[in-house]
Amino acid sequence: MDILHSWMGVDILGQDKVIQSKPFYGKPSNSDIIYVAGPYTSALPYEIDQHILNAEKVALALISWGFTVLTPHKNNSNYERYEGLLNLNNDYWVQSDLMILARCDAICMLPDWKKSGGAKVEHTQAQQAQIPIFLAEFTDV
């Protein structure tokens, strides 16, 4: 995959070769909405915080490139505290995120997305819907 955009220690790599329906080579428009996907949950609160920071860093790189960014990590931050009160579980969050993803023009996978069951489902849905898929890499590690 080619590096399509770099910003502050984040490289955005080219979309999957399978997806050719809407190329974003060049500069995307701010009317193009991209979904950021990767791990969120953890038994350790500091890991959740790190997951949110990773998603935020990638979101900022995508904004600097020209996308309008939807970051579920930021939209749903700390809602897990209320899962018992609202009788919710992880399935609720995955299903609601899939509804949001269906309305997006592209998806960007965080470097460690394969560690997340939800992100794997989102990646599969993007492939099936022929939503362009990008991959973020951190270069300042």
Descriptors:
141 residues; alpha/beta; Rossmann fold; six-stranded mixed beta sheet; 6 strands; 19% strand
What does it look like?
- With 141 residues, the chain is an alpha/beta fold.
- It has a single domain (3-138), classed as Rossmann fold.
- It is built from five helices and six strands; from the N terminus they run βββαβαααβαβ.
- It has helices spanning 45-65, 72-75, 83-86, 90-101, 117-128, and strands at residues 3-7, 10-13, 33-37, 68-70, 106-109, 133-138.
- It has a six-stranded mixed sheet with strand order 1-2-6-5-3-4.
- Strand 5 (106-109), helix 5 (117-128) and strand 6 (133-138) form a beta-alpha-beta unit.
- Mean pLDDT is 85; it is low at 16-21.
Cα gyration radius (Å): 15 Å
Q: Class by helix and strand content?
A: alpha/beta
CATH architecture descriptor: 3-Layer(aba) Sandwich
Stretches where pLDDT falls below 50 for ≥5 residues? Answer: 16-21
Summarize the structure.
The two termini are 20 Å apart. It is built from five helices and six strands. It is an alpha/beta fold and 141 residues long.
Set down the secondary structure blueprint:
Layout: E1 3-7, E2 10-13, E3 33-37, H1 45-65, E4 68-70, H2 72-75, H3 83-86, H4 90-101, E5 106-109, H5 117-128, E6 133-138
Parallel strand pairs: 3-4, 3-5, 5-6
Antiparallel strand pairs: 1-2, 2-6
Helix pairs in contact: 4-5
